Amino acid sequence: MRYAIEARGIKKIYKGATVLQPLDLSIPAGGVFGLLGPNGAGKTTLMKIIAGLVRPEEGELFIFGQNAAERTTTLKRLVGLVPQDNNLEREFTVREALTMYGRLFGVEALSETVEATIARFELEDMQSKTIRSLSGGMMRRVLIARSLMPNPELLLLDEPTVGLDPDVRQGIWDIISSLSAEGKTIIFTTHYMEEAVKLCNRIAIFREGSLVVSETKEKLQQRIGNGADDLEKLFIRLSRGGDL
Amino acid sequence: MGAYAVFSREMLMLYKKIGRMGYIFSSIVSPFIYLFAFGYGLGNRVEVAGGYLPFLAGGIIAITIMVNAFQQTAGSISVGRMYYHVFQSLVLSPVRAAEVILGIVLAGVARGVFFGSLIFLMAWGVFGAIELRATLVAGAFLGSFCFAALGVIVGLLVSQPDDVAFVNNFLIMPMTFFGGSFFPVENLPRFAQHIVMFFPIGALNRMMRSAAWEPGLWQSVLTLAGLGALFFAVGVAIYKRYSE
């Protein structure tokens, strides 16, 4: 089996506090992998480690078989990140933000790719607007569009639908589903159980920096039930210190 | 190509700032006040070969270059890292460390030379205190490179954007007032002269004021080039170990 992620003993300490306990985790290539857990469980830290924004104190991480510690240009082209915090340049227009990001990633046929991205994500009406003038949902759509311009094999989405209205959320679900159908590997964090049940092939649950469970959705549902409610009950039980 | 991508992104950010009301004006108002107040207020009391106003004009241009190359670079990186998170785009990109730092430093050079040129035009046009020389132009580029590279180090190392003000108070401010911009360093006590001879602003001041490529001027060229290369190498090394 080909793995998108192979983590061995990854550990992260922030200001003396261990935010990620030594973690062993394998994520097969292709499909949608959901990271669940309460706030402070270590999900975002893990996403940032995979993206290369944070360096772990211990352990090894391999992305598509390449050692992530080396952060080669080839490896960086394989990974796209849609962060929890908006990191778009607020003074840029949507078109400028896409163009500058594409140029940083050495995207070929940049003008055509920007045009295609604007069309694919239906950004035509807002391409000349500055980022700061966009709504939260629109910014998130631009963030996803931008991260896909270099055509990464692995896309990391950190709480991509938090705070969005149902229509925009559905649009992002559609994007995730279509990317999965293209064979991309998608890892996303979420607090919405409905989202996890609907989109994921595999689910991992974190608590206080530790991995509690990582299984296929089917296996997990055999243990706890099929509905989003069942997953939510498990989530709450684990969050309160209960067992699986 | 990677350095150009970083440089063009930084320059677009600067262009957006310059478009804002008051950005240029606020950058040149202090140098104008210094030139006017010290030039006419103290002009008769400070004895300098060639007259105080031309001496002061060179010093004020040097300060303008230092402040804009250093402060804007350090501020842009620190705020981009910790507040707006736009620095993440560079870290995620496949652009090599040396090219990222080169792109940022060259943008700092552009800022330093641009604002230095504005003060030059003011000193030349309004006060008739200076004339264009090759040594001045070379100094503007070398000095901007040196201080922008120093700004990269500070911008990458501070733990919050406000810490840049700390560096300003303990490094930039002493260089501004004791580095020979307002009065000859020979007026300082001998022990202080030994300290300030290591200030890059002293070398920049000499290049701003020198009428020709005298043998002694090459020491200033080497000082700025050497420190610039050292700061650049340190900036690259820090960036390679970058972690949020």
Biggest β-sheet strands, sense, barrel of chain A: 6 strands, mixed
Give the tally of β-strands of chain A: 10
Poorly predicted runs of 5 or more residues of chain A: none
* Largest interface chains and counts: A-B, 28 and 25 residues
Q: Major sheet of chain B, described briefly?
A: none
Structural class of chain B: mainly alpha
CATH class of the domain at 3-86 and 156-239 in chain A reads Alpha Beta
Hey, roughly how much beta strand do the residues of chain A contain?
25-35%
Structural class of the helices, strands and pairings of chain A? alpha/beta
SSE sequence of chain B, one letter per element: HHHHHHHHHH
CATH topology heading of the domain at 3-86 and 156-239 in chain A? Rossmann fold
Based on CA inertia axes, which overall geometry of chain B fits?
globular
Give the tally of β-strands of chain B: 0
The separation of the N and C termini of chain A measures 27 Å
CATH architecture of the domain at 3-86 and 156-239 in chain A: 3-Layer(aba) Sandwich
Report on the structure:
The complex is a heterodimer of chains A (244) and B (244). Chain A has 244 residues and is α/β, with parallel strands linked by helices. Chain A has helices spanning 43-51, 73-78, 94-104, 110-120, 136-148, 166-181, 193-199, 217-224, 228-239; strands spanning 3-14, 17-28, 31-36, 58-63, 66-67, 79-82, 154-158, 185-190, 202-207, 210-216. Chain A has a domain at 3-86 and 156-239: Rossmann fold (3-Layer(aba) Sandwich). Chain A is 38% helix and 27% strand. In chain A, the strands form two sheets. Chain A has a six-stranded mixed beta sheet with strand order 6-7-8-3-9-10, sandwiched between helices. A four-stranded antiparallel beta sheet of chain A has the order 2-1-4-5, with helices on one face. The longest helix of chain A has 16 residues, at 166-181. The mean pLDDT of chain A is 90. Chain B is built from ten helices and no strands. Chain B has helices at residues 2-18, 23-41, 52-82, 88-92, 97-125, 134-157, 163-178, 190-196, 200-209, 217-240. The longest helix of chain B has 31 residues, at 52-82. The A-B interface holds A 48, 51-55, 73-74, 76-77, 79, 81, 83, 85-92, 96, 100-101, 103-106 and B 1-2, 5-6, 8-9, 12-13, 16-17, 84-86, 88-96, 241, 243-244.
